[in-house]
Amino acid sequence: MTELLRIEGLSVTPVAAPDRLLVNNVSFSLASGKTTCVVGESGSGKSLTALSVMGLLSKQLSRAQGKVIFQGQDLTSLNNEQMRQIRGRKIGMIFQEPMTSLNPVLTVGYQIGESLTVHLGLKGQALKSRISQLLEQVGIPATRANSYPDELSGGQRQRVMIAMSIACEPAMLIADEPTTALDVTVQAQILKLLDELKTRMNMGMLFITHDFGVVADIADDVVVMFRGEIVESGPVTQVLEHPQHPYTKALLACVPDAEGKNPLKPIDYAWLEAGSLKDSAAVA
Amino acid sequence: MSEFILTARHLNKSYSQRSGKFGFGSTLVKALDDVSVSLRAGSTLAVVGESGSGKSTLARCLLQLQPLDSGEVLFQGRDLAKLSSAELRQQRRHLQMVFQDPFASLNPRMRVGEIVGEGLLVHKLGSIAEQRAKVLQMLKRVGLTEADMQKYPHEFSGGQRQRIGIARALVLEPKVVVCDEPVSALDVSIQAQILLLLKELQQEMNLSYLFISHDLRVVRHIADEVAVMHQGKVVEFGKIDDIYQNPTQEYTRNLLKAIPGRKHQQNIQEMNPA
């Protein structure tokens, strides 16, 4: 098992308030052909962690500390031009909103082709046939290359986004809540598709989600974040079935179960803060 | 009076949609196709379905926020569509709604006290002092404070805003509350808080809920009965346990199969912290 990505001691702070740690000393790694899910509530720092890997933090935020080692290279030491060579080429990205992530005035075929032209220099017939091939890989008829985003359903748009992100056969895919805006049946299809592509292309997948149900379906490893810190991490069965940290237990307990057997339990943040957080900080 | 507080019979509603290359043609889309559902007093009926199944249209038509093409909606035995606009306005205090998006459904220029009190003002219920006392009591009941009355919606988090939306709907002491995806925009821990709050308030105020949702895990926890909608039709309707355990329709089975993480759920819940 080859290590693809290693994040070491990553911290993110607002430029205006360097003492506030939005992401605090986060470390974990990801292997080729595996999926690591980063789980947490809003504000836990899970999306910021993903954006830091890509070097896409907004100007108001800065990466205070830490290394992002991808295929043996520290991405934090690269300049913008070098990062651009990696984004889209070696690391693909999918975002939450398939409605707003596509350009409405360009055909989906053109948008898929863009990265192929930029990174691989494909043109003409070679480009066309690669676009058709990609569309069929994600389950969309190749004739749809001439459609505009508004002619597609939400699930199809997300499939187009996936086609774009895997166009250059990246070694790693970062997916930030890619199924949150979709219906459950469509969500199940997209998760299955991502899982198949991951296996076939031996990609490493960094998957950001707030839904433990999705984690159970797709993850090999899980990283649980709370207020910028990792509170627990490990293989999926271990974290879901034998959670050690009180926050992980509490977060799992407020997920409604499909059988409706167990009462819902909101998280008691006061109780967490009253010390139980620190007691088991060494779980990860 | 029957045990049903709200009954919809044979509702039909179509929209015309532009079609053809330049949008000159039009096709009819049936949002509601002969839909009949009934809501028992004091219970929760969930309407589930995917985007475009007609569940939100059903909610709006039941409250007469949109005119029906045909069919009748009986509230306490009276057909709402046949009421005059003045009579309908009077009935509306008994029929309230909690909206999906807590960011879009509160007027950003009004203080929380005004937002929650507006219904009392419109329906001229009690003196100003009585109204204020009632607003305060309701806000406290949903977990907010007196100081919050003077604040504006942007000063609150998503979960708190949804509490404001609930207070606004319930301050009129309605009989029926339509909740249109009330927790879908919230974090899972906040979602659990709001669901529990809705359940408690239902008991205290003897409310009947029509609960629109696409999340079958949430529905399992809040509903007594379920109507499954698909392409404008109710394809399955019955008690929650029956439908989750023995769905008769292929469509319902597929929906249930698509719930993420089913295999792990049981193990997870056994690990609840004490």
Question: Strand fraction band of chain B?
Answer: 25-35%
Q: What integer value in Å does the Rg of chain A equal?
A: 20 Å
Strand order of the largest sheet of chain A: 6-7-8-3-9-10
Distance between the termini of chain B: 45 Å
Q: Please list the strands of the largest sheet of chain B in the order they lie side by side.
A: 6-7-8-3-9-10
Poorly predicted parts of chain A: 280-284
Q: What is the count of β-strands of chain A? A: 10
| Silhouette of chain B | globular
Write the element-wise H/E pattern of chain B from the N-terminal end onward: EEEHEEHEHHHEHEHEEHHH
Total number of helices of chain B:
10
Q: What is the end-to-end distance of chain A?
A: 21 Å
From the spread of the alpha carbons, the general shape of chain A counts as globular
Radius of gyration of chain B: 20 Å
Query: Which structural class do the helices and strands of chain B define?
Result: alpha/beta
Structural commentary:
- The complex is a heterodimer of chains A (284) and B (274).
- Chain A has 284 residues and is α/β, with parallel strands linked by helices.
- Chain A has ten helices and ten strands.
- With 274 residues, chain B is α/β, with parallel strands linked by helices.
- Chain B has helices at 55-62, 85-92, 112-122, 128-141, 158-170, 188-205, 216-222, 240-245, 250-257, 262-270, and strands spanning 4-19, 25-40, 44-48, 70-75, 78-79, 95-98, 176-180, 208-213, 225-230, 233-239.
- A six-stranded mixed sheet of chain B has the order 6-7-8-3-9-10, sandwiched between helices. A four-stranded antiparallel sheet of chain B has the order 2-1-4-5.
- The longest helix of chain B is centred in the last third of the chain and has 18 residues, at 188-205.
- The termini of chain B are far apart.
List the topology elements.
The complex is a heterodimer of chains A (284) and B (274).
Chain A: E1 3-14, E2 23-31, E3 35-39, H1 46-54, E4 61-70, E5 73-74, H2 80-86, E6 91-94, H3 108-120, H4 124-137, H5 154-166, E7 172-176, H6 184-201, E8 204-209, H7 212-218, E9 221-226, E10 229-235, H8 236-241, H9 246-253, H10 269-279
Parallel strand pairs in A: 3-8, 3-9, 6-7, 7-8
Antiparallel strand pairs in A: 1-2, 1-4, 4-5, 9-10
Helix pairs in contact in A: 3-4, 3-5, 4-5, 5-6
Chain B: E1 4-19, E2 25-40, E3 44-48, H1 55-62, E4 70-75, E5 78-79, H2 85-92, E6 95-98, H3 112-122, H4 128-141, H5 158-170, E7 176-180, H6 188-205, E8 208-213, H7 216-222, E9 225-230, E10 233-239, H8 240-245, H9 250-257, H10 262-270
Parallel strand pairs in B: 3-8, 3-9, 6-7, 7-8
Antiparallel strand pairs in B: 1-2, 1-4, 4-5, 9-10
Helix pairs in contact in B: 3-4, 3-5, 4-5, 5-6
